[in-house]
Design brief:
The complex is a heterodimer. In chain A, strands 2, 4, 5, 6, 9, 10 and 11 form a 7-stranded mixed sheet that branches. A 4-stranded antiparallel sheet of chain A has the order 1-3-8-7, with no helix packed on it. Chain A is globular, with a radius of gyration of 13 Å. By secondary structure, chain A is mostly beta strands. Chain A is built from no helices and 11 strands. Chain B is mostly beta strands. Chain B is built from no helices and 11 strands. In chain B, a hairpin with a 2-residue loop joins β9 (85-93) and β10 (96-99). Classes of the chains: A mainly beta, B mainly beta. The interface between A and B is medium-sized, with 26 and 24 residues.
Chain lengths: 111, 109
């Protein structure tokens, strides 16, 4: 079982560049999430999607856009990367208000 | 978002000592979940508590949900080096899941 798959695993960007983090889940979950994790800050919710075609802001949405392309895929886009966006990004999925399953994480460095 | 406060931020223990982390919310929670994240890894679900005053055990781990459903704790008895990692509580608020800041546990052999 693949579960939640996110790519790339590592990425270095220059300030101002754009990139998209891809995420796909094969558990037929309706809910999908993007979190960022910074030292001492825990996991902060960037965006959430309750179902295909719907998205909602989380705690720290500024500087990010998302697309729920279909039930399986939920992508996170940085239009103009900034050093403050250096972080570890986790995609996750769940069915309703139950267990959340995480991807392996994407380590992003913006220089 | 959901304000779930977690303490302590760090805990260093000698192998064999006990460990406890606490989560507190200013509002009543419908349920609370606990996750463990190993160094370099991703969070992995441990347990969900739903009922007021609920206590659940998983081997050396004991999870409690307060009577008012505003606080929760995770207690590890006789820690082992395999317990190293960060423990997060979290809760749903309007279908969005918010995490506490986590407690990083280090166990010295």
């Amino acid at each position: 079982n693949a579960g939640v798959t996110q790519t790339p695993k590592f990425q270095v960007l220059k300030t101002g560049q754009s990139m998209t983090l891809q995420c796909a889940q094969d558990m037929n979950h309706n809910s999908m999430y993007w979190y960022r994790q910074d030292p001492g800050m825990g996991l902060r919710l960037i965006y959430y999607s309750a179902s295909e075609g719907t998205t909602d802001k989380g705690e720290v949405p500024n500087g990010y856009n998302v697309s729920r392309l279909n039930k399986r895929e939920f992508s996170l886009r940085l239009e103009s990367a900034a050093p403050s966006q250096t972080s570890v990004y986790f995609c996750a999925s769940s069915e309703a208000v139950y267990t959340i399953y995480f991807g392996e994480g994407s380590w992003l460095t913006v220089v | 978002g959901q304000q779930v406060m977690q303490i302590p931020q760090y805990q260093h223990v000698q192998e064999g000592e006990d460990f406890t982390t606490y989560c507190n919310s200013s509002t009543t929670l419908s349920n609370i979940q606990w996750y463990k994240q190993r160094p370099g890894g991703h969070p992995v679900f441990l347990i969900q508590l739903v009922k007021s005053g609920e206590v659940k055990k998983q081997k050396r781990l004991t999870f409690q949900f307060g009577e008012a459903k505003k606080n929760s704790s995770l207690h590890i008895t006789a820690t082992q080096t395999t317990d190293v990692g960060t423990y997060f509580c979290g809760a749903y608020n309007f279908n969005k899941f918010y995490f506490g800041s986590g407690t990083k546990l280090n166990v010295k052999p």
